[in-house]
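Exercise: predict the fold of this chain.
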Amino acid sequence: MKRDTLLKLLVVFYALALLVALLAFIPKPAWLEKALSGKEGKGVLAIVNIYGPIHTSQGSSAWGTPDADDIARRLHHLSEQDEVKAILLRINSPGGTVGAVQEINTEVLRCKAKGKKVIASFGDVAASGGYYLGASADRIVSNPGTITGSIGVIMEFGNLEGLFQKVGVKLVVIKTGAHKDIGSPARPLTEEERHLLQDSMNDAYDQFLDTVRTGRKMPDAKLRALADGRIFTGRQAMKEGLVDELGNREDAIQVAIRLAHLSEKPEIWADSDKSFSSILKQFSSQFGGHSWDTLNEALAGPSVEYRLR
């Protein structure tokens, strides 16, 4: 072999080696990655149930459903699993406390940042904090009759001053600041305290609006017109742009399969289903079925919640 021919072959060889090395550092299109890996259409669909009032407690909540920490931990775990391509949030909740809802929402956003497709499936009710979580999903599927919306924040507590006077009870308060006992059931609010609490509510409300505005890509003027605490049926919500399409849980699974390019029958990791009785109990306590729980909440002070009233 002539020397010049050998030199040409060496140049070609080193050029090809350099090209291969460069290609290793260039991001490949998703379709090419799938083709090279032989994993076209494969992947796991995870289903996470968010049932009942959303609160943070130790272990299971008083309603017998996983608490916000449990759900957040599960979502965080799923965000780190490469085989999980889509997550279905099955939401059946009237809402809950602000912090608990945001604990879960942070992990929903983390899952999306890791490339997971997140689809929300609304059951009987997905209102207030329940809708908050759905708004962060890539797509929302709702039953036509689902109770949803209720975009707003509520703080409520009782004034038992009259009752205490009747039974001869007088609370003695020793405090370090003028507003340390704000919301005390033993006395009415002052105007200054009312303004302070309203400012806090407005800030929490703005956080709610920011989440919905970003997730739904909705103009602020349109959103504020809808975000006055009213509820919608799923069909009404779709007309207003608060949900994407109508369907049940199985329809939502098909949407997840389509968005994440999964096989027709993907592997599914699912939470165990639970009854909706916990929500009925919650409604009973909120709509006329007041009990000692109400008195306990009043004595404990105000609680800020994204919750269907």
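Check your answer against the key: Confidence is low (pLDDT under 50) at residues 30-40, 273-300.
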